[in-house]
Design brief:
single chain, mainly alpha, globular, binds zinc ion
Length: about 210
């Protein structure tokens, strides 16, 4: 998958956690969750200095050193259960982050591994065991090529969900405005969201 799809998926995953924990749009937790989602959606590729995030400072400096470590290779440790477990330990046990923030970070990181599992190369999910796990047979696996049709569909689908979540968060935040607040709240939550399946609507509405 290319960096843009990973970034978008990371932000959408973080927004999903924000909605699950009913965090207001304008809060420190939401801001940090979205920023973290943006970075953690691509962070696993710091094992490859040619990747999108690894091209930017200060990540470039870290990536150049990290990639030279003897046990690091692309789609190895950073794309494994071990990395997910270590991050959980860091965010939950060591840093004691609030649940909404912790799950936003975790969801963004895991989204990267899941998307890479849809590609022909797969990931070493059970690192240090070196076999690569992939969810699709090579013939229909997603190409990392920017012009790949499946990759483009992912971008479109993730963009739609991104706009849906973003508008939802903003409208819920505007609910406090006099007169217009309750009106747009009712219009969005009561009318527009009613086009979604009931389970999704129940989950989304604050
Ligand atoms: Zn990757």
């Amino acid at each position: 998958m290319n960096g843009k799809v990973h970034t978008l998926a990371g932000v959408v995953a973080a927004e999903g956690a924000i909605i699950t924990f009913h965090q207001p749009a304008f809060s420190v937790v939401t801001f940090l969750a979205l920023l973290g989602g943006f970075i953690l959606g691509v962070a696993a590729d710091l094992d490859d200095s040619d990747a999108t995030l690894a091209q930017q400072q200060p990540f470039r400096f870290f990536s150049l050193i990290f990639e030279r470590l003897p046990f690091v290779h692309h789609r190895g440790i950073t794309h494994s259960f071990l990395a997910v477990a270590l991050l959980y330990l860091l965010f939950d046990t060591i840093l004691g982050l609030p649940d909404a923030l912790m799950w936003a970070f975790m969801a963004a990181y895991v989204s990267h591994i899941l998307l890479d599992m849809l590609t022909a190369d797969g990931v070493e999910l059970f690192w240090p065991f070196r076999f690569r796990l992939k969810l699709l047979p090579s013939i229909i696996a997603v190409s990392s090529d920017e012009r790949s049709i499946v990759q483009m569909l992912f971008r479109v689908l993730l963009s739609v969900v991104f706009y849906l979540f973003t508008i939802h968060l903003l409208i819920n935040a505007l609910g406090f405005l006099p007169v217009i607040g309750p009106y747009i709240n009712e219009l969005w939550n009561g009318t527009i969201l009613s086009f979604l399946p009931q389970d999704i609507k129940t989950w989304m509405v604050y």
